[in-house]
Amino acid sequence: MSDLTYKVIVGLEIHVQLKTNTKIFCGCELAFGAEPNTHVCPVCIGMPGVMPVMNKKAYEYSVLAALALNCNIPAFTKWDRKSYYYPDLPKNYQISQYDLPMSENGFIDIPIEGGETKRIRIIRAHLEEDAGKNTHTLGNFSAIDLNRTGTPLLEIVTEPDLSSGTEVRALAIELQRIVRYIGVSHADMQKGHMRFEPNVNLHITKDGKVYETPISEIKNLNSFRALERSVNYEVRRQLDDFMESGRTMEMGNKKTFGWDDVNERTVLQREKEEAHDYRYFPEPDLVPIEIDDDWLTEIRSRLCELPLEKQKRFVDEYKLSDYDAGVITAEKSTADLFDDAVKAGGTPKRICNLLTQVGGKLANEAGCSIAELGLDAESLAKLAKMVDSSEISATASMTIFEEMVKTQKDPEAIAKEKNLIQSSDSGEIEAMVDEVIAANQKAVDEVTAGGKKSKKAMGFLLGQVMQKSKGQANPKIISEILNEKFPQD
Ligand code: ZN
Ligand code: MN
């Protein structure tokens, strides 16, 4: 076979549900999982003659997200009707944005291997309303739930700058962190708060010629796993298809696929519509939005340090590993707790270990975030300092942490109550060392003989003293005393 190389080209279309209290053009409450068709009104079910009114908060949330994605915010933006017929869209059009979106030309930096980042350009992000939901749980009948109609969605479209399933997944995770950090979406994948549609094709180089395979759009993915796997699957399928048929983009442009999660394969749905099929035209019932500098400045002031910046700062400033920094910045509340505890005097690595190890375990058990365990930064810093000054052992700090979560008591009080304070009384410790030496002549001989066995024997003596003190003696001091008694050269 001739030499063949290929490049994977992926662009993403993403819908993010904004966490406003009410829908985008009416006063109905956003309620996931409610009894079907109980959060609807004439506006959101599309009765003729009703008048939509824009939810200001939805627009502000979308601007905030667009700013976090480094987009330009035009001073003027308007609404358009996108016409299509589907049972979950009774009014036969979706209010969306076409030629003048509320934001454009941004980028998102995503973490890739080795602490590096890759910049993915964003073409535009616009605001629109969601449709309802068809359900198929009634035997031969399909049912429609319109509770979701009119949910504000931010649609984000990237340039095809992604070049693997892994990168696509990394972008999805980063975007989830960002919208959660700035508080515009719950971004709960299982509830469909973020839905992804990758456009995948290959640039295949064969015998010095470049061939482009037809683009596949995979619809409606709402898990990181399905997202990554469906892209990887399409890469293999398109490669096989090209080898078998030689099919390229000229022979049929774009097709829409679904993802079959059970059989882990894409399934052809339909040939893709073009924009002119949607008959976009300006929405006559809504006034355009004009944003002035003051309003934009006010919204910009709500931005916080974004997750990737925070992660990098924790590596640079606090010398955390990239892995630890990633774990600790997964949730903003936990990252802030960590940051505050370090500022309150705890050593970063110690605080990080306490939070990710014992904190992570307890949070998992309780089904909450680490920050929601309810510890305050000062107590956490205090606990970390107690380990660093050898007042307590690292093992004891784990026990104390658990007790702090349970009782909200002060770490020192718990340490005293549970007898976990290590003795640093060198007189008392020396007496125990002497007793141990007198009782273990063989180990003493090995220590004084020097060489290989000496180190091990020293460890044995230290262990004996620890045991004698019932784990209360400060091992650093025992070690100092032993070293004084048996100077090593
Ligand atoms: Zn409504
Ligand atoms: Mn859309």
What's the overall geometry? Answer: elongated
Report the average pLDDT across residues. Answer: 93
Please state the CA-atom Rg, rounded to the nearest Å.
31 Å
What ligand species are in this complex? zinc ion, manganese (II) ion
Main sheet specs: 9 strands, mixed
Q: Supply the helix-strand structural class.
A: alpha+beta
The total of beta strands comes to: 16
Summarize the structure in short:
The chain has about 500 residues and is of the alpha+beta class. Helices cover about 40% and strands about 20% of the residues.
Structural summary, described in words:
This protein has 489 residues and is of the alpha+beta class. It has three domains: 4-295, no CATH class; 307-417, no CATH class; 426-485, Arc Repressor Mutant, subunit A. The protein is built from 15 helices and 16 strands. Strands 1, 5, 6, 9, 10, 11, 12, 13 and 14 form a nine-stranded mixed β-sheet that branches. A three-stranded antiparallel β-sheet has the order 4-3-15, with no helix packed on it. Strands 2-16 form a two-stranded antiparallel ribbon. Strand 7 (133-138) and strand 8 form a beta hairpin. Helix 13 (441-449) runs antiparallel to helix 14 (452-468). The mean pLDDT is 93. It binds zinc ion and manganese (II) ion (MN). Zinc ion (ZN) binds at residues 23, 26, 28, 40-41, 43-44, 150. The site of zinc ion has 8 residues, from loops.
